[in-house]
Write a structure and sequence with these properties.
The chain is an alpha/beta fold. The protein is built from 12 helices and 12 strands. The strands form 2 sheets. Strands 2-1-3-4-5-11 form a 6-stranded parallel beta sheet, covered by helices on one side. It has a 6-stranded mixed beta sheet with strand order 7-6-8-9-10-12, with helices on both faces.
Length: about 350
């Protein structure tokens, strides 16, 4: 038999009104209770009935989601958590994978989501023309990437602060040859690599460390790219004693390259990542932890609230917490003359 809202309420130990508020992203429910209700609803296979409210409201009960790379960990994690929130509230997801310039141009030219969705969650960063096209849809808009922009609710983190904590950690350990593996060839209009590189350069300058362009390499935000980038850094005339990778996947690739070069971590080279990937703890990676899944869930809840409270002032930016997680891949540099 199909589970009802009463079944969810009984299993979660709350009232049916609390279940309704929680699954629709309404305020007045603690995060702990909201998460418990979402888990119970998923376990019971419950989704809110949409037929009656659809006729009354004219809604499609479909959310459009735009992604640049559906197969990559960050985007997949955000998408998965957002979809769970939408599904529990009775909404379907219409997914558009816009990884190539051609696909992206075709989407924004035709805007196939028009009159087909009630809201849009974008995991790519639209330029001014693309942003205007999305605003023309007249539906709530949210994103988990990039900075504040008119018409969008943004759920994100402080990329600069996260990078500064990582690079300062290496400086405080005594490193002076600090390399960086970036994602300069990331998605179109991607601001994260720029923000993190600027923070890296600022920390070096504050510490009186001269920037060496030979200590930067592009890792394409992938494990294989991180391995190639680390190999490139090791070929420098004066290779780094520590490396900051702009993502954990690139950091894992760096660890693989170091192992293949018979170098020990952290004795020979320290490595710091960014994300706190689900495998970061397995490999003992020091990293900047960001709540990736929570960003997707919060963005989904914001969209649902805006649909339920269209007259309320939408939040422009929600900043999620980050923290430096110290594990086994960082240590002071070995004494070996000038660095």
């Amino acid at each position: 038999m199909t589970a009802s809202i009463n079944d969810v309420a009984r299993a979660a130990g709350v009232s049916t009104s609390t279940v309704s508020r929680a699954l629709r992203g309404r305020p007045g429910v603690s995060e702990e209770v909201r998460d418990r209700i979402s888990d119970v609803a998923a376990q019971l296979g419950y989704t809110a009935s949409r037929s009656a409210s659809s006729l009354a409201s004219g809604r499609t009960y479909t959310i459009g989601v735009l992604v640049p790379y559906v197969g990559r960990w960050f985007f997949g994690t955000v998408l998965d958590s957002a979809e769970k929130v939408f599904s529990a509230a009775g909404y379907d997801v219409l997914l558009y994978n816009l990884g190539s310039p051609e696909t992206r141009k075709r989407f924004f030219t035709k805007l196939p989501v028009r009159k087909r969705v009630d809201a849009v969650l974008t995991l790519l960063i639209p330029d001014e023309e693309e942003s205007a096209a999305l605003r023309s849809l007249g539906v709530p808009l949210a994103t988990t990437v990039g900075g504040t922009r008119p018409g969008f609710s943004v759920v994100g983190i402080d990329d600069r602060a996260g990078t500064e904590s990582a690079v300062r950690h290496l400086v405080n350990l005594g490193h002076r040859r600090i390399g960086m593996i970036s994602g300069a060839s990331g998605p179109l209009h991607w601001t994260t690599p720029v923000e993190r590189r600027n923070a890296y350069l600022d920390v070096l300058a504050d510490a009186g460390i001269e920037h060496d362009a030979a200590l930067e390499a592009d890792g394409d935000y992938t494990v294989d790219g991180g391995e190639r980038a680390m190999t490139e850094l090791l070929a420098a005339v004066r290779p780094p004693t520590a490396v900051f990778a702009q993502s954990d996947e690139m950091a894992m690739g760096a660890l693989r390259a170091l192992r293949r070069h018979r170098l020990k971590v952290p004795e020979d080279v320290s490595v710091v990542g960014f994300d706190d990937h689900e495998l970061a703890d397995v490999v003992g990676l020091t990293t900047v932890a960001q709540p990736v899944a929570e960003q997707g869930a919060e963005a989904a809840r914001l969209l649902l609230r805006r649909l339920d409270e269209p007259d309320a002032e939408p939040p422009g930016h929600v900043q999620m917490p980050i923290r430096l997680v110290l594990r086994e891949t960082t240590a002071p540099p070995r004494p070996r003359g000038p660095q």
